[in-house]
Specification:
Length: about 200
């Protein structure tokens, strides 16, 4: 296949899927190196941004997805008559921060850090696809472990969990202070947070 044909095939796969597709799977289907798919996806990503197209190609860890350009969110919402989701509440952001920075974590660990019951918020975030089960801890009661999802990455506009801002120095602070500092820093850097999640 020519490069243009591979590029078109990548677009077609991602458009038809509507969900993230791993670069490895695309490469296997097209019988090319995964590095070539990564290069092509970067070119498409830059092209869509430069031409101010209505779609964007985003990277979510080792997967790719096509989505609408964020600047057209209100227009899309009007055209499809969908209601704008409320932003995440502070408690929900705090639970997400604990999960994101210390994953995989149990509900007991989250509640220890926050000092309050988090069952409702954990269930809400799970329903919204921002966190998910990562198996069970090999301990009495075998509690569920939680981790973030590709939806979390997409919602916060990052490609990988490593892109989160670093935590402050951990040696002389309690967990709660560390988490709060990280949340404050992230909110300061991302004042557009979160359109497509819910209060909790």
């Amino acid at each position: 296949m020519e490069i243009h044909d591979i590029e078109s095939a990548v677009e077609a796969i991602l458009f038809a899927s509507g969900e993230p597709v791993s670069t490895g799977r695309i490469a296997a289907v097209l019988a090319v190196e995964e590095s070539l798919i990564s290069d092509i996806s970067k070119n498409l990503e830059d092209k869509y941004k430069f031409e101010r197209r209505g779609i964007r190609l985003i990277r979510l860890e080792d997967s790719l997805q096509l989505c609408s350009a964020p600047e057209y969110a209100d227009t899309i919402r009007l055209a499809l008559e969908t209601r704008k989701q409320p932003q995440l509440s502070q408690p929900a952001l705090e639970v997400l921060a604990v999960v994101a920075y210390f994953q995989p974590v149990t509900r007991a660990y989250i509640e220890q850090v926050r000092g309050v019951d988090c069952g409702y918020t954990i269930n809400l975030l799970t329903e919204r696809g921002l966190i998910e089960s990562a198996g069970r801890l090999q301990a009495p009661g075998r509690p569920v472990l939680y981790k973030t999802t590709p939806v979390f990455l997409r919602t916060f506009g990052i490609s990988d969990i490593e892109e989160l801002p670093p935590l402050p120095d951990m040696e002389n602070e309690g967990d709660q202070m560390k988490i709060q500092s990280a949340i404050d820093l992230y909110l300061a850097q991302n004042d557009k947070i979160v359109d497509n999640t819910v209060d909790g």
